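Fold these two proteins, one after the other.
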Amino acid sequence: MFWFEIIEIEKTQIMKTLKLLSIIFLGAIMFTSCVAEVVIEEDVYIEEPPVRVITLEEVLNAHEIWYVDIERTQGSGEIPFLQKAFTVSFKNGTFFANNNLVGMGDNGNGFGLDVGVYDTHRMRVDINHDIDGVYELVATQLSTNEIEIYDSVTNTSYYLIGYQRSNFDYDRVFYDNIHYFLQEYETWEKVYTSEYGALNEFDNENYLKFFYYGSGENFNSSRDANGMHIDDIFYDYIGHYEVYDIADNFYRKTLTLDYGYLDNEFFELSVINDSKIELFHPNSGTTYEFKGRGHILFKNSEKSKTTQNDTKRIKKADLKIRKLSK
């Protein structure tokens, strides 16, 4: 009996010991789980590169050729040298323009004629044109290849579309503006009449002279003999002419010469080269060729006015003075 009691006492002590160890173990686990790990980090500053502002000079030089989209012009006034230009270019302070269709793509390696100088100041481009003088214009970039040129004096905006010379379609500009091409010679002289075709009144016309397209009586014709000096040609008839596209034939146009009471003459017009055109007369089946005489170089409004280097230096100095005085 005594031995059994000893065993029970030892058993009880063992149980107490195990219970105590369990409490200590569980407490340790709970204590560990309740302790929050505190980590102190220092602020990390990442220095971002500064945003680079593209200058107007870089925008203007990003494209070699700027096509003047004349149909989108807004305002009642005009900037003369933009009004008459098919394209303009800004190159190292020199302002170029393609004012003529004859030689477009070849003149000035595609840039056109040197017609002035320019300078930029923030979003303003100051252009000193050889003939029209100084214009202070605001340039706004509308997209990666389009800018608006605004003249606050006349409240007029022009829109320019940028190209590289390698991807600019000079031929399309040429054929889209054939009516201007006809005006680039003082007169057109008939140099060929086909042997085939019925006799008709136009067989006797030897000279054609074209004026501003869209005005009233804007062409003259003459029956004077071939080889006349341009200034001695007497024009017998005055009328109105119109040029239209031919569907599905980009390189051929229609030309109508309205002689008023003498009725109209209708032709299919094609360009042989920069100085010769072909006129096919459907009513008679006759083909004529006319050669341009007296090419008019549209620097702008004055003919044969050249640009001198000394003049350019003076103009660049003038632009610099204007810029500093602002």
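Now the second one:
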Amino acid sequence: MGLGSLDMLKDGRDVWDNIQLIYRYPNGQKLTYSSISTNQFLPFFNGTRAEMGEIIMGTEGTIEITVGGDDPDKGVFQPPIAWWYREPPKAVTVTSAAEKAKPMVASASMLTASGANHPIPLNLPDIAFTGKESFLEKEAKFARRWLLAKGVMVQEESRNPVDLELEGFFQNCRDGGKPKADLETGMADAVAVILSNLAMDEGRKVYFNEIDKMGLGDKKLTTQVPGKPVHNVGG
């Protein structure tokens, strides 16, 4: 279910400038999605990166991702960055019936448990462990990770990921390889977008199985073979 509207960018577009969506999946999984394109405040990386990006928050931590930027006219290349803020381990405690009746009071322990910790850059090849490193190579990677987590160094992609994506596509065309994001991934993404727009347009709960009925309507498609009866193709 979700809400969306076009409140400010009224220049002929039909894409909402603000979106709020809630998804519910099996096994109790839930996802809330919020997007706004009419505000310039971006808290990515302590406000040091003013660009498009995403913040993904979950039970295992938070990931900040930016798409980077490339301005050939100014000779500026701003590399994409991805940081992972880990959540502290969750202790599982068993509470007795008598203790459950006691009201929960916010305390200093709740405050100290909140807030971001030092981030860990998502592993690029220069800091990822392969198991084949020598002792010195492993120590160097540990050192780079520590410097990156403290903000002393900034991790950068050696090349623009968009260029790598296109190169990978052409390479898959040549050798018949399977892309990391294949047709099934693209279709699942498109289905989620179509149903999300439907939920906002109609202001109701939309179910994933509704995609099976979309586009069919009440008419039946038919084919005519010369000299033979008409055959129904679908309903």
